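Please, why this fold?
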Amino acid sequence: MEYRKDIDGLRAIAVLPVILYHFGFDSLSGGFLGVDVFFVISGFLISGIIYEEINAGKFSIVNFYERRFRRIVPALIFFLILYLPVSLVTLSPEALSSFGSSLMGVATFSSNFIFWLESGYFDGATELKPMIHTWSLAVEEQFYIFFPLLAMLLVHRSKALFLSSISLIFLVSLAIAEYSSDRWVSANFYFIITRAWELLAGVFCMLFLKKQWVINRYLSILFTLFGFLALLCSYFFFNEHMNHPSLITLIPVLATCFLIAFGGAGNPVSAFLSIRPLVSIGLISYSLYLVHQPIISTLNIATSGSSSLLLLVFGLISSFMLAYISWRFVESPFRSRNRISANSIFKLSLLSMLVVFIIGLFLYIFNGLPSRYEASSQEVFNNASPSTERYRCHANKRKEIAPEDACIYGGQASTAVFGDSHAVELAYSLSEQIDGGVVHLTYSGCEPYSSRVFTSKRGCGEWTESVINYLTLNKSIETVYVVYRINKSLFGDHRSDYPDFPAVDFVPERERMLRWNSLIDIMERLQSAGKKVVWVKQPPELPIEVSHLIAINVLNGSSDKIIGVSRVWWDERSRFINTHSEDIPKGVVVVDPTDYLCDSENCYAVINGKAMYFDDDHLSVQGAGYILDAYYKNVDQ
């Protein structure tokens, strides 16, 4: 297939937004779309080679995978070798065990499924995962398992049948992506079935160019200019909260197709994409993509999620330097058949991937090697744990639990704990603090939706209403603890923006007041039913997961008391709650974890060698017990 400089330039236009987005440049809110651009480019280039060789009667599946191994494996192994010693020093046992599972995914080109099982791509914790970006490599390789076979089967028999088949797959894949985009968000992002249409868009570009239609030069320029501008706009105006991939993703995908299909010699847009700086970045784009995420992860862990601009610039420069070294001394030599034979590349690739899998399995089986730490530090890691009843008793979208079927801790219940996932550990710990049983009524990610405030159906609103009715009618329940992560509900998650705050309009003002008034209404309704209401305010959030804070502080020689966030930051984050305190119904008892986890300067993640959290915002069992114990001591006094 004829080499086009502008395609390497387009690779640069794809990789730069991705790495800048991951490095935290907020203006490129849609920078993640660079991966979608890569999918289209990959589909175009690889399908072109396959199509030409099949037509010439020269295609060999063995030769195809030899080229894939030469392209993918050497640089991947190079960066894994570089990062493995770093991981042993900087990653907590939990994170190192997760890294082990991702290594197994990398070695088997199934890391997209691994990360789907663990979390969503846009979760704040993903920026701390050094291998999260390898999901896209897995998607590509999964595509290149079935596509060459499909092409071999159909191209010679009937090009029309081949076109019809990939068109059908394209439409089905896009339809599934659209349907899943607001139902199964994480699976939709990671799965090959919802990404295949993007790679097939590149195949359509290849087939279009094979027709060699004569297109008016000015029309071609217009199409490529439109594509370039549409792609740039996508990078700046898309964001992580949009349904993606879905029909709207057609914008950057079609923009990329326009640049490929209508670009070429004599086109000024293609000429711009062919300038030396962009082509040079395009040449190292694969290595640049591989190296940037481990560097970001390490910087975020080392600085507790608050890297300075200077460190980010250092990270970018380091990424480019290592990418060039990889391209010059690893990628290029291994692509040369004169230097390394096909037999050698297969043996080296399979052996190295086997070693990666075994290392990953070792790290996973041995729980991230906690023996790297002293016994006292291991204890801190161990008590950063959730309730043992969380899985059984906590409801979510996939596991509805009616209030009548809720878990009861202890004997006859006279107390209930009601709220979102932040109530789970409090329910469990409360049962050890008071006489009588505790009813566990929690639902993951549930906002405080009262039907008297929200007239339209909202998410878990039906569950919330059923719980309110259950508690109202249940005369044996005398006290209800209400627990929500209310700051997130009112203003959004802190993780993507820390040490700044989410944009004030992230949650619209009207929606914010509805949620706040709904929380107040829930308390009033419970009070009207004769219940004693205890509102446990949200505990301070952490900049990164507590296990990472412990690991870094252990390196610095201290794990007895570890700072989470500054008191100034937390007070600002909680300003709305504090300034609207008069809205709380009279008679409601307010328990503020800030009183027990913070002093005048800082809020702490670890106190007296006990982890107060099990991630970056949920209290651990130890933390919940610590707060309740301190609260009841104050009450007794």
